[in-house]
Amino acid sequence: MSIEALTVLLTLKRHGRMGRYSISSMTGLGEGVVRRILNELRDQGAIRSLKGGAELTSKGEELLLRLLSDYGISQIDEGSDFAKLFNCECKKCYMSVVKKDINEGDVVRLRDIAIKNGADAALFLRYECSGNKFLILRLEKYLEDWDPELGALLRNRFININCNDSVIVVCGPNDYQVLKSLISILRA
Q: How confident is the model at residue 1 (pLDDT cuts 50, 70, 90)?
């Protein structure tokens, strides 16, 4: 299944019933692409079309979880509060706990992959249980020292995080570009 389909599924999960025009506007995908994806998802039983738009079915929720897992994402949530940390005009940010172990030496290369795929910014963190903090890789500083609210946001959203889990925050112009960048990092 494509990153475009993942984008539509995640958008429907986060925002509920929506029409294709709203999905297109929110995600940055063209209306024709959204129409094609909605038709495919409906044929698979992942969504149902109702007056006022499409919504996920239980089969769609299962498909979304399977896709995220297949891409190496344990947990994902919107985190647009990170735009202030990056001091960017980012319209959309996603924060995710990933199965991939991010090494300090890979951070610059992975950030470059994110930027090449449409992201405006990317941040790589490791959760350290001993201090209940998120270490910013390559900077050797804790997120909580820069912005305690963002550290608390991550801890509150990712209550099932494990010691030494990697967290990636990617920000960009729309859902599709951010997810495309995140998946590109995970495939690298």
A: confident
